[in-house]
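Problem: given the chain below (158 residues), write out its structure.
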Amino acid sequence: MLSGLSIAALSTGTGIVLLLIGIALVIWGRRLPSITIPIPRLGEIKGPVGFGVLILGSALVLIPVWRADRPERLLISGRITFPAGRTLSSVVVSIVPSSHTTLTLADGTYSLRIPKGEDGMQYPAFVYAPNTSPPDYYIGVVRFDADGRGSFDYAVKK
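Solution.
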């Protein structure tokens, strides 16, 4: 299985090769048929075959660069239960810092992706149950293990 770094390196390398081929086709491929590239809401671009290869090569180079600054994200999942094992759907689960928020399903489970944590790292977690009377708020903690996996299961006690 390829890691994120090797996929980015493979994409960038392929993009650079395609850029070089595209430049060669634009310069020396004048006798080749021209192509038409449809662009939604803008119309079409017509030009030598090399233009299409240049566009593809540019995309393969720029997409890994654009995504490089994103931190690795992990799936956090858990279950929110209320007294007597009761669960509710549409309970808001929010992990702080930032805006990592989701809603629970009917069985009280949820999942969302947050930046990878380090062993012992903790994120505050907030639970808001708008469909209770009165609406309830709870605060908990997402704890990370040595593999960077986080967990947050919460049982509301009253």
